[in-house]
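Ticket #4471: structure export looks truncated?
Reporter: QA, pipeline team
Priority: medium

Steps to reproduce: submit the single chain below to the structure queue and open the exported record.
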Amino acid sequence: MFLLLLVLFHGSQHATGEEVIADNRAESVLLPCQVDASVSRGATVVWKRSDLQPSTVHIRWQNSGHLSGQNQRFVNRTSMMANALQTGNLSLALKKPTYADSGTYTCVINMGGSLSEREVILYVKEPPPPPPVWPAYVITALSIFLVLLIVAFVVFYRRQKSELKKRYEGQKLRYVKAESGQRSVTLPFRFLEPPNGNRVEWRHVRTNRLVFKFENDHEQLGNQHQDYRDRVEVTGNPLISRNFSLTLKNPRYEDGHIYICTVYMDGEIISQKLVRLVFKVE
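Actual output as written to the record:
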C-alpha cells in the first residue's frame, strides 16, 4: 500500500478533467472530482481558480471546511459533502452559477506534500440580452403619434363620406349582393327609351378607378384599371340596347363598394346610376 501511495503522490501529479455546462438560471452546479478513498483520507483538498486573486474557491481538511482566504465571490456559495475525505467524493457544489463563474477550476489533493490535481472546466451559459427599455419620452411620443394617426383617419373618412354624399345627393342607391365562389354578378342600369348619349363609363366611386368605358361604338379599355381587366363586360352596344348593366366576373371581397354608371353626350352628363355591391363572406 505504501508503495502504491508513493507512486500516486510522488512529486506533483496533474490530470485534465471534464467540461461542465450550466444554465445561469440553475440553483447550483456540481464540479466533479472523484478519487480513491485511500488517497483522500487524511488529505487536505483545495479547490482553486488560478485566474482569480485570491485563487481559493474552497478548502476541506480534517473533515471540516476551512474557508479563510476564500475569494469573496464564492462566500456562502460553495460546499462539499460532509464525508468527502472518507469517501473520495471531492466534488464541489457551486450555488447560483453566473456567467462570470465560467472558467477552469482545479481540485488539489495534498497529502503530506504530495499533490494530485484534477481540472474541471465550467461553462455557464450567458443570459439572453434584456429586452430594450424604451425611454418614457419615446413611449409618450409614439402614443401621441398613434392617437393623431387615428384622428386623421377618422377625419379623412368622414370628409370623404360627406363629399360623396354631397356629390351624389338625390341619387337613388341600388343594392346588389355577391358571395364567395359566385361566378359573376350584374350591376343593373337600364333605360326605357334610347338615351341621347355617345359615351358610357362605369367607375368605382371611392377610388375613381375606371371599370368600363364604351365610346364611338366600341369598348375603350386603354385606361381600365388592372383589377377589372378581363373581368367585366356589357352586352352589345349599350347606347342602342338601352341596357348599361355591367357584369363583373368572379367577384371578390375587395370589389365591394359603390359603383357609378355615367352616360355622357359630348362631355355633358345626361344620366347617372349608383349601385352598391355588398359582398357576403361565409
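Status: closed, not a bug. The export was complete when the record was re-opened. Leaving a note from the reviewer for reference: The two ends are 89 Å apart (CA to CA).
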